[in-house]
UniProtKB/TrEMBL annotation:
Pfam families the record matches: AMP-binding
UniProt protein name: Long-chain-fatty-acid--CoA ligase
Sequence ranges assigned to domain AMP-dependent synthetase/ligase in this UniProt record: 43-164
Gene: Slc27a3
Catalysed reactions, semicolon-separated: a very long-chain fatty acid + ATP + CoA = a very long-chain fatty acyl-CoA + AMP + diphosphate; tetracosanoate + ATP + CoA = tetracosanoyl-CoA + AMP + diphosphate
GO cellular component: endoplasmic reticulum membrane; plasma membrane
UniProt xrefs under PANTHER family: LONG-CHAIN FATTY ACID TRANSPORT PROTEIN, LONG-CHAIN FATTY ACID TRANSPORT PROTEIN 3
Residue ranges crossing the lipid bilayer per the database entry: 107-129
Domain of life: Eukaryota
Classification lineage: Eukaryota, Metazoa, Chordata, Craniata, Vertebrata
GO function terms (MF aspect): long-chain fatty acid-CoA ligase activity
Amino acid sequence: DLFGSVEPLLPSLREDGVAVWVLGAGPYPEGVVALQELLDAASEELQPEEVWEPEDMNDTCLYIFTSGTTGLPKAARVSHLKAIMCLSFYELVGASSKDVVYLALPLYHMAGSLLGIVGCLGIGATCVLKEKFSASHFWEDCRAEGVTVFQYIGELCRYLVNQPQ
């Protein structure tokens, strides 16, 4: 859905060595990796560990987008080790596979994607994704989905406390 916003930047991204991957129907310009085509062509057979296991767990696994609270927004490096550690996040705070986790944080942020989604995968919990946080619909959503855990950052709890009963 957001490819149109990135497309004008493709020449400068290529100059900087940035790869652009897109999931969705193409066609896409040369140099853009269409993930759906690769997924459709991929084998169901698991590859040997030496193909997918990182040589060094401190190597870059992925980049996340920081919100810019300490300056301008920017990409931040996440190592394989840190990504794997996120699998244990909910276990560390006492959640289990029986929990239903409500997540309304942006998925381009580490708290949403790695701690939230990957954390749910780590314990086998159900994750309820909300496209946008709404204090006025929060409790209604939680009741409807059987939510037992809510992940938040920043001001979300203050917004909830300031809602009428």
